[in-house]
Write a structure and sequence with these properties.
Layout: H1 3-13, H2 15-23, H3 33-45, H4 51-76, H5 78-85, H6 88-104, H7 107-111, H8 118-128, H9 133-158, H10 162-172, H11 174-197
Amino acid sequence: MSYDTLIHLIAQYGYAALFFALWLGIVGMPIPDEVIIMAGGAVSKVGLLHYFPAFIVTYLGVISGLSLGYILGRFFGSPVLDKLRRKKKLEKHIQTSEHLINKYGNLALSFSYFFPVIRHIVPYLVGINKMSFRRYILFSYTAGLAWTLVFFVVGQFAGGHVETIGTMIYHYGIYVGLALILGIFIFMIIKIRKKRRV
């Protein structure tokens, strides 16, 4: 599915398309989560969807998709993980996820959001490790709110460049995202100062 197709689906089905595009991210949607979230921000900016409901639906899509990973890990456990390990592309990500959990514990859930693929594996692993759902909510949902907000706002400023910027963030990591956020922050400060002068 292309970015244009995603926008078409949002235009046709509204908030439901936004939610399911993120909820299905666990099965490997061809569009990065970052791009989908930014698309939510972009379409709310032009009035295709209302800002607040679009953000809430986007957030719910993110956390429900990752929570599905936690639930699968908790109830189906290691057999599914063993099958995933056989895929060479995933083995490296699984090892990285395990390393993050071993080194940072519960905090790994929080910052795993900023790493593609790993964000879907870590909830599965903590589910296997029988982390309580209450603890999972505390670390995952809080970080998910901040992560969703960041990319949703970036999407509002990105305009027609959502796909390009979102794909760059997906491939080159958090550093591109932080640079964009810093750029937006500086832009807003300059704009506010200009208004005050007038």
